[in-house]
What we know:
Shape of chain A: globular
CATH architecture of chain A: Orthogonal Bundle
Keywords (chain C): ATP-binding, Cell membrane, Membrane, Nucleotide-binding, Repeat, Translocase, Transport
Strand order of the largest sheet of chain A: 1-2
Number of strands of chain A: 6
CATH topology of chain A: ABC transporter involved in vitamin B12 uptake, BtuC
Number of domains of chain B: 1
Subcellular location (chain C): Cell membrane
Protein name (chain C): Sugar ABC transporter ATP-binding protein
Number of domains of chain A: 1
Domain ABC transporter (chain C): 8-243, 261-505
Largest interface: A-B, 49 and 49 residues
Oligomer: heterotrimer
Membrane topology (chain C): Peripheral membrane protein
Amino acid sequence: MTKSRLFWPLVVLAILLLINLIYDPSFFVIDIRNGHLTGSLINILNRGAPLILISIGMTLVIATKGIDLGVGSVIAMSGAMAAFIVDGNLGDSERLFPLFLAIALAIGLSAATGLWNGMLISRIGIQPIVATLILMVAGRGVAQLITGGQITTIYYEPYSFIGGGYLFMLPFSIYIVAFVLCVALYVTRRTALGLFIESVGGNPLASRLSGISSKNIVLMVYMFSGLCAGIAGLILSSNVASADGNNAGLWYELDAILAVVIGGTSLMGGRFFLMGTVIGALIIQTLTTTIYSVGINAEVILLVKAVVVLIVCLLQSPEFRKKISGLFSSSRKTPKDEGVNHHESL
Amino acid sequence: MNRFKLNDRMIPVMITLMLFAFMYSFGMFRYSNFTSPQVFFNLFIDNSFLIIVAVGMTFVILSGGIDLSVGSVIALTSMVAASLLLAGLSPIIVIPIALLVGPVLGFLMGCCIHFFNLQPFIVTLAGMFFARGLSFLISVETVSINDDFFRFMASTRIPIGNYFISTSVIIAIIVVCVAIFVAHYTKFGRNVYAIGGSEQSALLMGLPVGQTKILVYTVSGFCASLAGLVFTFYMLSGYGLHANGLELEAIAAVVIGGTLLTGGVGYMVGSVIGVLMLGTIQSLIAYEGSLSAWWTKIAIGLLLLLFIGLQRVIVHRNDKKKNTISLKDTEGSDQIAR
Amino acid sequence: MIEKAPILAMDGITKVFPGVKALSNVSFQLFSGEIHALMGENGAGKSTLIKVLTGVYPLDKGTVKLEDVPIVVQSPLHAQELGISTVYQEVNLCPNLSVVENIFIGREIMKNGRIDWKKMNDRAEELLSRLKLDIDVTKELSSYSVAIQQMIAIARSLNVSSKVLILDEPTSSLDVNEVNQLFEVINNLKKAGIAIIFISHFLDQIYEISDRITILRNGEYIGEHKTKDLPRLKLVSLMIGKELEEFDAQSENKDTGSEHGDKKEVFLETEELTKKGSIEPFDLKLHAGEIYGLAGLLGSGRTELARLLFGADKADSGTLKIKGKTTNLNSPKQAILNGVAFCSENRKAEGIIPDISIRENMILAIQGIKGWFNYIPIRKQIEIADKYVSLLNINPPNPEQLMKNLSGGNQQKVLLARWLITNPDLLILDEPTRGIDVGAKAEIQKLMLSLKDNGKSILFVSSELEEVVRCCGKIAVLRDHKKVSEITNDGKIDHQYIMQEIAGGNL
């Protein structure tokens, strides 16, 4: 099952990579420079790290039939928070304490925003789109409040390690992504959380009648999403050594939703595919790279994204499938249709 | 307008109006310049395009949907207008073409939403990407406008006593009046309310649900295009990044104006007051000087929270009356779902 | 009657949904100035027939004639134009619109291209006064009670001078006074020559108001009778599908649980358990090792009671004791932790999680008890799933198959397994055997008996009385949200007796 779900995203990714190969024969080459692995593939992984992180959080949110529009703002807030902390420690490049304090506070703030969203949705019962919209609007204001409206440049050296550092020849951000992915996979596969998320997303009423406290599940999922966004915010701000309350993480929520949808998770909730999401995020990142290398105007990527979103959603829509299969009129009747018993359909 | 009796539905609008009056008088009290009526007129001049967009958005939200594409449609409209003018076409041809951009996109989005049962949120998100992408495809750079008619529209001041408004304000006011008429005195308008109240009921009452939904997005697209044109008069340029994030402001204005995000309840007037309120916040913060611009966003966020909380209370109260029957509908709803 | 031509004649109506014949060769005749009740249990095809008549579904076969003219109804709107209006059970109006709009929307009175509100207000008041209703028509619908909303819905259909008025469960959320008010209105309409189709689960109401009854069962036409010539007992037997003569055949009663049941400890006890509008004060004593049956027609309160005992709904008043301890069940989880399990009759909406596998559906409840971190190892899960797949004969016998790909009967077995795995002390089964084949039915009954022998209690809700009598040691009969009698199954009672209790009143 999972195999077939991953098949098409993988094919698309492969095609994109091949197109790059045509334009740049050295695309797959990975060199060792200064003891670091370098090359386009590594670059895609490195650049794609924040998006993959956010998409992982978004996957779980969408699996519960929700959506988190606030992640872009959380990115900005988290970066701003970290920059604010390390900014006051200019001279202390040697000491690592500010680094850890910055990380802890930034992540704490992100988790708090997730908690906020989760409370609004699970306890007060506001629709996810609406509840997270508040943070989407106000979050950027808060981020700018923290940075004082300026684009804060970060001179504190150790901070750049998060997004730009290398560990065992690979960019450090790749390790972060790998770690979060492993945690997410572990929690959803080796504990019952994955099952609970899928059941809450698939049929909230039946889940409640099976004794699952769906409110807590929903709360957790939004906290996790906030956390992921916070980490992504650290990576992004570290990458560019600055915090920009206005533009950091702009449109990331949309890219993340796109990645989730490409990865095969339905916006209607239920079954989710973390690996699919990761591939979806990589597709988006590779698409960006491809458009650069093919030499098309970078902004046109929006056009491509729009078309991809629409196609994927149409393919997921039962009405669309019905109409298409009606066109080809090869009525593929599956045995399950026959098996539906009388009362089921009344 | 004897229909507008004070009832539950009007409470949010009244609160908005009172908040607006309070804020405005706070401004007048605090800054001597604020007392000039021109400040009030400027609210309209600076926000006329937002008023037009908010009107279209109100229709969409009343029907229970959402339109995230409006900001991008403004950018695309400005870009289409600017580039066609650059190509030497006359404004008489350019303006109708520019005004077609939004309705066509809105119509297509409405079709996707109705025929394939896709969520409005995701479809208009794609529309948003699409429109921005398209405007960048036309040009990445700002295209400035030198056309006489556009300049005329931009610079004409219509005097009111010792003060003035702009042509765009006139357009906005006309749009609002037409929208109020459409919402309350035409079948289409009432169908929008009905669908927002209960789509299933609307279907069973034999209302043209699909047609109305498609039309709603077309109308919103048209409003966005018209706003785009007004915005182009204002900026005298076309640019792919114009009106970035405007959809959020429009949604915020509609919500602050007392329209229920779940659909079915709200007034055009509320949305206009919502826009004016956002404008007042911006002016106040600008006048204050020591306060920075980002406070606007935080203030909007707080207002959103306040009004969404208020909606929740009202909806909850209504739900309590209704939930006695909701549980029994098992057989019936299954069949409808078919 | 014979000389008068029917205003509406449906003949040979067949409607097939993928894999299911929802209606098969059904006929229906309606005369003007009569109230015609359409009767049948859940799934009998009443709703489908109405929806075919009102154009919600296209029909596959058959003819519909209105005033002797063949018609093909295209849509609900078309039906209204033809003079066929429907008032649905769940009041299909828009709560956010004013009363006047709910009456007129879709057919607004226009003047000079705009809606003429004033004229519409006047017209609405006039229409409502015909129904003896004097209310402010400019207020929103939601500010009025369901009964008044019901009347407004009727006013809406009168506005098109309707010939045929369909009332689908109009009384299910009304109290006695409101029902009387509604009936007065219906009788007035009848006198005005309107043909009325009336659907209700309340037998008393059917006998009070209807002139004739058409009975459907499993999508088939069973018969048409004059109400006054059809004894209640006969009606119930026609609906449920057992001819009276058949009944005495299986008198062999396997369970005489009552003999020892009373001696065992009481597992669950309720006193005056009440929920307004769904359960009148209810006393119940459930012993360990007992199968307790709830009999009654749909809407009699049997499901509502089951939900209260499981904490799915909250009781307004009364006490509930589990093992002698007063317990407040605020959520299903609490009930589960107290050893109660509940298999809902509404499999699709309240039971299955369609997108996950059989195995995951099975372990859901037990995992809910164990919590997040005490995850049952996959190998153990497969073991459990395999065990129940073969125990309950689930097809396809592949625990990894997605739930949505299973037939209804197999889904039901998976849900049963979900609860059996939790090893509950009390298993509430709401129509567990509906729509599943005979073999599976027998298996489930066998399972119930073996659970009983292991000292479990079972609360068994079923409309198949034969089954209830065969399995249950004690049977409560419900009618109109009340327990009308409690019968100890001493081996001598039969279906006929219970049916009499269900029918109540004069036979």
